[in-house]
């Protein structure tokens, strides 16, 4: 066997973590026949509930999202890191069932979560109108028992001062014919001393009901806990050996925050766990890439507790003995030649639609109607894609004719309304069309007037944003080649850790998403301005910065 063939053989039988890079947290994994699906949280971004597809657990392709319109979810006014939390994807009686939580708040213990159910005969839809479930807590999930019954699980929230806000795991029966919850909701598991018990999934195997939960919070103390019972309604006994998976106490591990797991069984009876993980830029440092999805192999002998080697997340895992099934590579350049946005793009707080996005009027261009300011939460005009590596870049060409300072269009490195960097075209008071740079760090804006560039009357302006580890750099091209703006911007403000803010013991802001690179347009005067973007190219280098 040649070295080249040997390398290919090694690649196809190994899972390299994370399998979904960048902002892809809270995975729900599902197998239907020979197809595997991963559904992940999307928070304030459309389409809601991002889905990936695989045939071998090694190669994954993006299918886009399930929640594509306001009929299924309305995110107008949604706060940073609110919105769609921890979706759950199951399959029963020829239908896909998607349960998702729309969390409206997290202040003072008032999460205001509304749980919904939609169904479809195919993963691509069409999806039913949403069924309102309860608002008892978030991280809702379905369990379909072998007797044909269906059950809704969730964490049980308790708003009362002095009480544990994570009141345990709750279960209630769901009548599929009546499309409503029936009977009494019951607490079946109070959790372990790790606390913050959430993210429940139930499996039936070897005469036991196995309850998998997330505990310890979604940061450095995160873990996957397993408990079991002979009866669905409990009582459940946690594994006396401790968590199935965690990174706690191991700052040397590349994958941190390991938790929020979901199990899947292959066609050949092997078990794997999809779970949340993060890659800090330094030991227990900031995670600009957000929370990602990884997969671990699980050893689960009949009648015994499931085990992962060492109980820690591995970077490389033995893949199941399935035929290799790679997908075509995603094109580096989107020429905007299709009538709809490609699956790599997401939009902020409002679904992609003809009221503000246009891929038809001008062929091979994306026209974006100007929206609200960077702090606006009703109708922003931001089309972004996830940052998937420490070193990556997005470049585009924009045509934009602003009338005054209220009109802006350009390229952003973005985390949320309070944390971003922005290179944009606008109009100066003296009538010049100019390129300006603005940063926002926890709501405090920093302009760079000394870096203002007079772009003249040329129609087309090239813009580029580059992540290089902890640094973001912007460049522009007026037709004579790329020129860098001479400033290194802090990329780590675009991280979960920096976005989180606790005041007097209460969360004023959370960081649950990850960094984006995006095309952003503002029309602060409501004058009907728009910008045309002619192609966008994304490239990433998967080697760590500095290597």
TrEMBL record:
The record marks 139 as: Important for catalytic activity, responsible for pKa modulation of the active site Glu and correct orientation of both the proton donor and substrate. One of its GO terms (biological process) is carbohydrate metabolic process. InterPro entries: ConA-like_dom_sf, GH43_C2, Glyco_hydro_43, Glyco_hydro_beta-prop_sf, Glycosyl_Hydrlase_43. PANTHER family: BETA-XYLOSIDASE, BETA-XYLOSIDASE-RELATED. This is Glycoside hydrolase family 43 protein. GO terms for molecular function: hydrolase activity, hydrolyzing O-glycosyl compounds. Belongs to the glycosyl hydrolase 43 family. The active site is at residues 26, 198. Residues 333-539 form the Beta-xylosidase C-terminal Concanavalin A-like domain. It comes from Micromonospora endolithica. Gene3D superfamilies: 2.60.120.200, Glycosyl hydrolase domain, family 43. Keywords: Glycosidase, Hydrolase.
